[in-house]
Every structure is written in structure tokens, then in C-alpha cells.
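Technical annex B. To support the medicinal chemistry partners, we prepared a structural model of the target in complex with copper (II) ion, based solely on the information shown next.
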Amino acid sequence: MSRIRLSSFWIIALMLIAGGLAGFLTIHFRTSAPEERYVTITAGKYAFDPPVLRVNKGDRIHLSLMSSDVTHGFFLEGYDLDAQIPPGEFTFLLRRPSQSEEYETVDEVVIVAEHSGKFRYRCSNTCGFMHPFMQGELIVNPNYLYPTSVGMSFGLAIGMLWAFRRPEEEGTL
Ligand SMILES: [Cu+2]
């Protein structure tokens, strides 16, 4: 009897791990599940609002930039993106530093969060004495947690069903 209980425990544990692993791997090897996100970042002395922007890997971010006081800049690490944001307008000036010094007027820029990690954004137009500290952070999550826990729940459910069935089957033998 205790032998059966022991093996049931291991089956449940195994299914829990297998389910979690399945969820984890599904995300790890997924190529695209893009979510469209519309985000406005407002620059003002001496911070960005929001200061931290969290997205999931693969998301497409439609980014609008605004300023609440003076002309600020917006340089985003890792995305070859630099902007000048004049106050009181719905448009801003954008350039790709690796390609051109020229700015073009746009009302949004679309970026794809291709890599997970942290990418700093900072003001690139001297706007006052606290200017060097004006920065924020784009955090791109790999989004493992949710599918892993869903997979574990499935694994647990299957493991429990199996474990509670087994004594009945043995009883009929
Ligand atoms: Cu600034």
C-alpha cells in the first residue's frame, strides 16, 4: 500500500515537472505571438512618464512621445532610435543614428521587442541641470511564468487523475 502511495507521488511530481517544462519550452521556442501595444511616453523635467515600460518579447510597440515643458530628447538603447520632442505637439522628430543625422517628423514610431532584457532610454537634449539623470527603462520579459504555471497545473491535474485511478484498477485485477 505504501509502495503505491510512493509511486503515485512520483507520478504527480513527474507530471508537474513535465507540464511546467512543456509550457516553458512552448514559449522558449515560439517565433512570434505579437501583441500590439500603444504607448505614450511623456517627457518632463526631469523624468519620463512612465519611467519603466514593461512589455513581452515579440510585442509591437506603437510609441508616441510628448513633452510637457521644454524640448526633451529620447534615445533608446539597442533600438537605433533617437528623437527630439518639442513641447505641446503631438508629433516629434525622429532619426536612426546609425543611418542618418537627419530628423523626420512623425507621430509615432513602431518598434518590435525582439530581445528580452533591459533597455535604457534617456533624454538626449540638454534640458536643465538634472538632465543627465533623466532616464527610464524598457523591460522586455521573456514571458515564461504564465505558460509554465499553466503547464504545471495541467500536469498536476493529469497526475492526480492518474494517481486516484490506479488503486481502483488494481482492485479489479
Ligand atoms: Cu530632458
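Notes passed to the chemistry partners:
The chain has two helices and eleven strands.
The radius of gyration is 25 Å.
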